[in-house]
Amino acid sequence: GKHGDHGRGGLTFKPVAPNTDDALTIPEGYSSSVVVGWGDPVLPDAPAFDFDNQSAEAQSKQFGYNCDFVTLFPMGHNRALMWVNHEYSDERLMFRGYTGGAAATEEQIKIGLAAHGGSVVEVERVRGTGQWKLVTSGRRRYNRRVTAQTPMRFSGPATGSDLLKTAADAKGENPIGMLNNCAGGTTPWGTVLTAEENFDQYFVNGSKTDPNVARYTIPTGVSSSSRRFDRVEERFDLAKHPNEANRFGWIVEIDPFDPDSTPIKRTALGRFKHEAANTTLTRDGRLAVYMGDDSRFEYIYKFVSDKRYIPGYDRHNRTLLDEGTLYVAKFTGDSPASEIDGSGKLPSDQAFDGSGQWIPLVSGSKSFVDGMSAAEVLVFTRVAADKVGATKMDRPEDIERNPVTKGVYVALTNNSNRTAAQVDEANPRPSNKHGHVLEIVERRDDAGATTFAWSIPLVCGDPNDPATYFAGFDKTRVSPISCPDNVAFDRDGNLWISTDGNALKANDGLFVMPVQGRERGYVRQFLTVPVGAETCGPLVTEDQRSVFVAVQHPGEVDGASPESPASHWPDGGSSQPRPSVAVAWHSRGKKIGS
Ligand code: FEO
Ligand code: CA
Ligand code: CA
Ligand code: CA
Q: Residues annotated as region Disordered (predicted)?
């Protein structure tokens, strides 16, 4: 337009109002459609989805449950491979009359195993638009389902460690399956990094005396909420196979262009409840990976490879994630502790900010942590981070570097358990229901740096709440935002934030905020998702003509069931809800955000 994009982030759309509608709501002038949802065909021989006649065999060929991370690998202008994580199954919504894992049929438990993992699907653009559709005919040679039963391998320094050995895998090299893959990232060589998050919930009978079991909140008995995977695969019973739980909680690398490839659990990146893994290059060309551990009072991590990324030298690049240093973040505030009083009021220097350092934990076979071997640091990374005095954060979710400004942004989703005595300048709000967003500026804007400056540009919530902060922007103009989860950037460097768990009595959604210029802090809501859903993805495509979101767990409301669904999205009528990936685009082909 004639006003240009200067200082405006190019964002001119009319924000969507908070609502509780059972719909995907987008701004005026935009269109949306569902790309692929639970039960849709992934493998060419997948049967048609039938809610009342499900089988594990069918599910292992169909799109899994609870889509989360979404990324696209272009194959020309109008075709792409899409990778999607399937974080977890919700049997109460998947099966009629489900009362828990103890009473479930073995087939239901096997469907649950097959509903996890991820999918590779071919998608194609509706020519001349930002709309993308699932390819449903032809060979689809790359299409693939990865599940909780897919053979994988370990790579990196902890491979073959005694801590990873089991009766079925005496060498500690070949884990089976991945679980609770939440968000993720991609590598410069065109593979997916997918993050195993809340893997603890799948196990029963963990040791009651092993502090490492407690540190990862692994169940020590059999609870009524367990899916009871142990009933069909004994390895999930830790009384019989205590090390099996150590084989989950990793970053998994998957090559979408090689459907026969074995997924790789990269041990050099540590084991915790991984939210995501986003990569960038250091000033000298090495690979840096930013990662969060999404639990209350957990930490933020960075891995930096020893060697440089060499464009086109694939064999070399695929070793980078095995050799490097794993760091954990420590944040130090620059205001007196007395000024961080928990009221949400800014300290006298008018900013929650300070300096920080990346503390090394382990590099190859060298441990930097007293009393722990390198393998122990990698397998029990939380324990190592405790020992070096890292900063306990308000649930670190997604973390990603802004390709334009080079700042690194972290979504800290919430932490209702933080007490007034536990606030610090990086986590300044007690009973933090709505979360905040942290900005890290590494020294010389170098992802290889070990020191940084940081600040909090966004303290989420109702803008009328004095304990919120929108980077000093006029709070009468911003959208309310609560529980930031995933972050992404468009090519202009605007920060896109999706939410999970909106505590403002409205549905979750997708928001955008410029991080520089006069509109820094101007949060606007771009879409809302249906009842009970969280917003995942998100992905603004490189050409900025499409924005993808994963609509996870529509209808997941207390007491909901197939007999009384809380959502009928996306199929409408009296249908059961289906977690699905949707795409939105400007109806006249303008840039997303116009
Ligand atoms: Fe699976 Fe931390 O969201
Ligand atoms: Ca300060
Ligand atoms: Ca998430
Ligand atoms: Ca989440």
A: 555-594
The whole-angstrom separation of Cα 509 and Cα 530 is: 9
Block residue for tokens 């693939």: 144
The pLDDT tens digits of the residues spanning 189-208 come to 999 999 999 999 999 999 99
CA distances from 203 to 148, 213, 230, 253, 469 (A): 13, 11, 7, 23, 41
Q: How far is CA 224 from the centre of its chain?
A: 27
Q: Tens digits of per-residue pLDDT, 343-397?
A: 888 999 999 999 999 999 999 999 999 999 999 999 999 999 999 999 999 999 9
**Non-local CB neighbours of 338 within 8 Å, separated by 6+ positions:** none
Q: Distance between CA atoms of 315 and 568, rounded to whole angstroms?
A: 47
H helix or E strand, kind and range, residue 481: none
Is the pLDDT score of 123 beyond 50? yes
Per-residue model confidence as pLDDT tens digits over 272-302: 999 999 999 999 999 999 999 999 999 999 9
Ligand 1 nearest-atom number relative to CA 68: 1
pLDDT, tens only, 432-483: 999 999 999 999 999 999 999 999 999 999 999 999 999 999 999 999 999 9
Distance CA 60, CA 110 (A): 10
Cβ atoms within 10 A of the Cβ of 467, count? 18
Residues present in the chain in total: 594
- Cα 510 to Cα 529: distance, rounded to the nearest angstrom: 8
* Tokens 């603890």 belong to residue: 200
**HSE on the CB side for 148, CA within 13 Å?**
32
Ligand 1: centre distance to CA 70 (Å):
14
Residue 2: per-residue pLDDT: 38
pLDDT score recorded for residue 344: 80
- Nearest to 496, CA basis, from 506, 486, 483, 508: 486
DSSP readout, 536-573?
EEEEE-TTSS-EEEEEESTT--TT-BTTB-S--TTT-T
* 394 CB within 6 A, ligand 1: no
d(CA 43, CA 136): 9
376 pocket-lining for ligand 1 (C-beta < 6 Å):
no
Query: CA-based diameter of the chain, in Å?
Result: 69
Atom of ligand 1 nearest to the CA of 183: 1
Phi-psi sector, 560: left (phi>0), alpha (psi -120 to 50), beta: beta
pTM: 0.98
Beta bridge mates, 452: 356, 442
C-beta of 90 in contact with ligand 1 (< 6 A): no
For β-strands 278-281 and 286-292, DSSP reports them as antiparallel
Structure token pair of residue 135: 């390819």
ipTM of the assembly?
A: 0.95
